[in-house]
Hints:
Layout: H1 26-42, E1 47-52, H2 58-67, E2 73-78, H3 85-95, H4 107-123, E3 127-132, H5 140-149, E4 160-166, H6 169-174, H7 180-184, E5 186-192, H8 197-210, H9 220-230, H10 234-250, H11 258-268, H12 281-302, H13 331-342, H14 352-357, E6 361-363, E7 366-372, H15 375-381, E8 385-391, E9 394-403, E10 407-412, E11 415-420, H16 421-427, E12 428-437, H17 454-465, H18 481-493, H19 504-510
Parallel strand pairs: 1-4, 1-5, 2-3, 3-4
Antiparallel strand pairs: 6-7, 7-12, 8-9, 8-12, 9-10, 10-11
Helix pairs in contact: 1-2, 3-4, 3-5, 9-11, 10-11, 12-13
Amino acid sequence: MYLDFYGLREAPFSITPDPRFVFLSERHRDALAHLLYGIGQGGGGGFVQLTGEVGTGKTTLCRLLLEQLPDNVRVALVLNPRLSPIELLQAIAEELKIDISGRSDSAKALVDALNRYLIEAYAQGLRVVLIVDEAQNLSIDALEQIRLLTNLETATQKLLQIILLGQPELRDLVARPELRQLSQRITARYHLTPLSEDETEAYLRHRLAVAGSARFPFTRLAVRRLHAISCGVPRLLNTLADRSLTAGYVTEQTQIGEQWVERAAREVMAAPLQRWRGLRPAWVALALLALVVLAVWNWPRNAAPENAPPQASTPAPAAPALDSLAEIEGLQESAFVRLLALWKLRAPQVDPAAVLRCPPIISPGLHCLRGSGNLAKLTALGRPVVLRLRVQSRDAWAVLLGVDGDRVRMAVDGRSLTVSRSELEAFWLGEYFALWRVPSFVSGLTLRQGDSGPAVEWLRQRLVEAGHATLDLDGPAIFDADVEAGVRALQASAGLSPDGIVGPETLLAAVASETSGPHLRRHLD
């Protein structure tokens, strides 16, 4: 209806998965790399688990994965996992075109047929992969049957690689005590998080450009509202943006402001936006910025040392329980203020509003990384980070200060809180925000084999000092095969995909062992 009015050849925000409109954020690319690495060589017969909220792009990544598979890979794709163990084995056999006539009702006969197929495929140099979408719908018995399939092996090689795609409930499912054997076999976990505000704008521009738009119809405030209402979920973005364009067309608006986004949201969202009703986003942003600037400026003078005993006349308030964090306002601001203070940063050294957006480069040499991982990965990186928690369907924020074998310590609303690792993992989906420093001549670079110069010389020194490579530091500063091998070793030690390419997460891992800056506590007693 609005195509001609906005100069479009086709609808830019259809929710059907058209490959031409695919937009991969940094986290989508990282998730895809995890999947490809697991299939290619990294899984060794274990499970690869990819989770994400509804609409974040898991199925789209699955389609991209299938398009990029090597020629020697055979795939069984199960899209409807609400199956009994027998039905699941039947579905796998049908996907792999295994003849099961006359034995489809026997689990043993089905497993035997599958085992013969896997051995023949192994002899031919083929890899066999089972991909289960919407895996959170698997029954306990079906998951146990899938685990047993990983027992199909030769003396040296697992014969089946399994990838589980699902919503966050999948994490809770595999964490159940009766599935602990399966959980231990998950060799790679990745949680796909929504788009950031900057990525949201890039996403909108990308889809409009593919659809033939010569101009961008949304104002800056409209983009902010689209991001805030959708929480960066691509599917919701499509619905809201499409309805906003319709509203703009009906009222002949060449530029769509935030009021049209609000109107679209009231039509398509299930609940009214009471939290924002009557507030202009510009005023809210200004108030938020003022709050953070004041807090950062005053922090070093107002904060007491973390280990200082409480004043006798004013007992320290009790730390809140994790399940009560949804009731506390301002946790995001206080968490980032605390992270800035740990790095001894304060206004005007850094713009607090920029830190809240977490762009890749905040200022020359100072970086912010929005990543995804688990506690093992954060422990390997060894730096305090801000954790984004999900409590009672609302975001909550905390600063990770320390990790030991059983517990974690966090700063929440200015107080120290120690909980078990399992309790944190019940509320944390894996998203974290980290600050880190590198020399300004390294900022913004992606390094790979064939590069040279001061950044490569700096990288070589880091690899040697960390024990990941033996290099002649007096030799030419060239990113050669030996440096790449050292980078892969560094990435593997930090729980990263060892692709040999130095991006933001690898740079963060490279400076994790440096003595400057704050570090995670390893002993919480």
